[in-house]
């Protein structure tokens, strides 16, 4: 017997039942994004590797340890399965000259890939919603993106998700701060863990984000970036906060919030929860004004965020806010030679009228078919025997009624069947 093939660790199937919840979630996302005027963009899963090394930074964990990169055997081109969506979206905006036409509000959904340790809500193939804006320099768009998150949690019925914000200032301000940070941590070299030592001279701001308990006292004593910001950066940050205050949106300033990607400047933010263990971030983003120019385009302000669908679906399911799975409207039961010929016609006729139909396949007697009809969750069984087929009729049997006479079946002409079912649905909604 040949060995069965399993899915790759951290790359999971989404099975029926779960998949329906994903469908509902994605519909909520489309409606939510449209309510803010954001347009969908669909991006390739595979991009040139240099796109990510230039955008994300060569000394980041993603580029150093997590990317699925390979060489195209046909032309020798270095390619990578996208580990995040922003770089690809910026590439598309530059390539198609989108921002030259007008400021852009865009969103996307799709798979991302990172070779990291799988854990609850975090996998090697994961799905992400990304929202990106181009051409808006002021703090108003930063605030809009943050408030979009708040509205989405409400739309999804989620609670206990809190907002943390910070400002990274501009690159030149961060460069001065970086030098001071390196000088500070160099005094504690012997106490730094291996990750911190590795990052000390490449990406020292990420040390501030360390979760190692042994390093927390050292980190708390580190200089603060906010103290190195100029008046324009501070004014931008104050502008974001003012909008949040005016809308009554609670937040905390987290000076250790630095984000893991090199391209951020000014506003950064995260929505976090305590319901997903140590990896509690469900949405993260900020401003990245220099990235378009960094990737070869004309300088243009940009801002956005991303969120993992797996994490949000998990929260929706565990909160009890997940909708009940939709069932078909009608289950077609048939018995006999004439009935078997007529039944597909009846099913297709109902589908043409917008009614969802599950057609019985595989034979079986009347009793076994009716059991399957009941188990399907359908509102009605349409029963066809040879006598019904000869008369051009069917038997319509309600399966979900309550009270005396609610489940009484009736013979009805095929050409009246669709209208009768639709009338029953409308009557049910009115009641």
What features would you describe in this structure?
- This protein has 431 residues and is an alpha+beta fold.
- It folds into 2 domains: 18-169 and 229-319, Bira Bifunctional Protein, Domain 2 (BirA Bifunctional Protein, domain 2, 2-Layer Sandwich), CATH 3.30.930.10; 330-426, 3-Layer(aba) Sandwich (Rossmann fold), CATH 3.40.50.800.
- Helix content is 40%, strand content 20%.
- It is built from 16 helices and 16 strands.
- Strands 1-5-6-11-10-9-7-8 form an 8-stranded mixed beta sheet. Strands 13-12-14-15-16 form a 5-stranded mixed beta sheet, with helices on both faces.
- Helix 1 (18-35) runs antiparallel to helix 6 and helix 6 (139-156) runs parallel beside helix 10.
- The longest helix has 18 residues, at 18-35.
- It starts with 17 loop residues before the first helix and ends with a helix.
Number of helices: 16
| β-sheet strand percentage | 15-25%
Q: Could you say what the CATH topology of the largest domain is called?
A: BirA Bifunctional Protein, domain 2
Q: What would you call the structural class?
A: alpha+beta
CATH superfamily name of the largest domain? Answer: Bira Bifunctional Protein, Domain 2
């Amino acid at each position: 017997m040949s060995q069965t093939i399993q899915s790759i660790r951290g790359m999971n199937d989404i099975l029926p039942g779960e998949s329906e919840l994903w469908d509902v979630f994605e519909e909520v996302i489309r409606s939510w994004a449209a309510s803010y005027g954001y347009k969908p963009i669909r991006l390739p899963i595979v991009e040139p590797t240099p796109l990510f090394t230039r955008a994300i930074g060569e000394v980041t964990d993603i580029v150093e340890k997590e990317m699925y990169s390979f060489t195209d055997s046909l032309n020798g081109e270095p390619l990578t399965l996208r580990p995040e969506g922003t770089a690809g979206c910026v590439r598309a905006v530059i390539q198609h000259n989108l921002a030259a036409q007008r400021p852009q509000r865009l969103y996307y959904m799709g798979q991302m890939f990172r070779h990291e340790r799988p854990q609850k809500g975090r996998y090697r193939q994961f799905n992400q919603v990304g929202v990106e804006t181009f051409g808006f320099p002021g703090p108003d768009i930063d605030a809009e993106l943050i408030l979009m998150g708040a509205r989405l949690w409400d739309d999804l019925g989620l609670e206990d998700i809190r907002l943390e914000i910070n400002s990274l200032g501009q690159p030149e301000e961060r460069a001065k701060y970086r030098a001071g940070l390196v000088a500070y941590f160099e005094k504690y070299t012997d106490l730094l863990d291996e990750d911190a030592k590795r990052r000390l001279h490449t990406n020292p701001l990420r040390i501030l984000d360390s979760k190692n308990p042994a390093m927390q006292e050292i980190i708390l004593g580190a200089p603060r970036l906010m103290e190195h910001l100029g008046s324009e950066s501070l004014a931008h940050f104050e502008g974001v906060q003012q909008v949040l205050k005016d809308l009554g949106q609670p937040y905390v300033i987290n000076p250790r919030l630095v984000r893991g990607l090199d391209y951020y400047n000014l506003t950064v933010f995260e929505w976090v929860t305590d319901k997903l263990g140590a990896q509690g971030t469900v949405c993260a983003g900020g401003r990245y004004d220099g990235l378009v120019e960094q990737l070869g385009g004309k300088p243009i302000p940009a801002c956005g965020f991303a969120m993992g669908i797996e994490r949000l679906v998990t929260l929706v399911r565990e909160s009890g806010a997940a909708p009940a799975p939709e069932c078909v409207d009608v289950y077609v039961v048939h018995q006999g030679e004439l009935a078997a010929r007529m039944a597909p016609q009846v099913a297709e006729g109902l589908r043409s009228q917008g009614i969802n139909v599950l057609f019985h396949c595989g034979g079986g007697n009347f009793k076994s078919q009716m059991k399957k009809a009941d188990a399907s969750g359908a509102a009605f069984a349409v029963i066809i025997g040879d006598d019904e087929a000869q008369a051009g009729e069917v038997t319509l049997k309600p399966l979900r009624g309550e009270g005396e006479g609610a489940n009484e079946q009736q013979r009805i002409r095929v050409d009246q069947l669709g209208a009768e079912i639709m009338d029953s649905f409308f009557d049910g909604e009115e009641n």
